[in-house]
Every structure is written in structure tokens, then in C-alpha cells.
Amino acid sequence: MNAEARIRRMTAVDVDAAVALAAALPAAPQWALAAYVAALDPAMRPMRVTLAAETVDGELAGFAVASFVPPEAELESIAVAAAYQRQGIARRLFAGLARELAAAGVTGILLEVRVSNAAALATYRALGFEQAGVRRNYYAEPDEDAVLMRRGIP
Question: What is the spatial distance between Cα 28 and Cα 91, in angstroms, rounded to a whole number?
Fold first, then answer.
């Protein structure tokens, strides 16, 4: 598939597609619909940046969510539909997040990822993240350690 997609703010119209996209990716966080709705609410704390990658056909190719309390942010989720992976969409979503977070006064971002998720670890390293630690038994079903990663935002 063609990776032509524009990066834009995620809206309530995207929520059902985001839930379906994440459900199709076993390694993606499996949030309830209400969690996506809350992430879009500007009154919720911590504040969040939510971005969507939309194809020329209007399909949701990917999305990203980061929460922040300056000067720190947490990348809560970044997911790209299987048909659009390895085409630069995650990189473009992260670049959009980084721009918005920097404008909000964020200077660093962290994330956790399953130690077994080699594809995500490689993506995060390619995005400039470095391992900052390990959180033992962080995940359940299955029980697994989390790699804590961090990077600065210029």
C-alpha cells in the first residue's frame, strides 16, 4: 500500500477506527473506547497530544498519543496499521508529536515497551530513544518486563 498520508489532529470521528486498528495489532496497547475519548478531551489532565495519519482515501493508517506535564511527556501509544508499516508513518507521527510537545515546553519524552517487542524497540531506537532502565514484571498477560526508553526533544 502507498504510505501517502497526512498527519493531523485526531478527532472523535477517528475513535472507532483507532480502536479497531489497535485491536488488529497484538503488540499495541488495547485501550477501551472511553480511553480514546478521554485522550481527546482538552479538559482532561494530564494534557495530551493526539495525532492521526489519514490516507488519501480517508482511512486511518495510524495514530499517536502522548501525555505531558512540561517538561516531561510520555508516549502512551503509537500504532500503524499492518498494511502501512515500514513506510515512514510512525516516524512522521512522532515528528508531529515532537513539534507539538516542544511548542508546549516539553524537553524530554519517555515510554515503556515490552522487552519482547523487537519491532517496536527497533523503531524507537531509530527515532532516537535510548534505554533508560527496565521495569520488572511491568506487563501482565503475559507477565513481562518493560524497557524504559527516553529521548530529548530539541
Answer: 16
Q: Which of 4, 76, 124, 130 is catalytic?
A: 124
Please name the CATH architecture into which domain 5-108 falls: 3-Layer(aba) Sandwich (3.40)
100 tagged catalytic: no
54, 76, 100, 112: the active-site residue: 112
Domain spans, the chain: 5-108
DSSP helix/strand/coil, 30: coil
Assign 3-state DSSP to the chain and report helix, strand, coil percentages, each to 5.
30, 40, 30
Q: What is the pLDDT of residues 31-64, one digit of tens each?
A: 888 999 999 999 899 999 999 999 999 999 999 9
Residue 122 DSSP SS3:
helix
Catalytic-residue membership of 124:
yes
pLDDT in tens, 88-100: 999 999 999 999 9
Pinpoint the alpha helices (H) of the chain.
15-23, 33-40, 89-103, 118-126
What global pTM score does this model have? 0.91
At 119, list the grid cell.
519491532
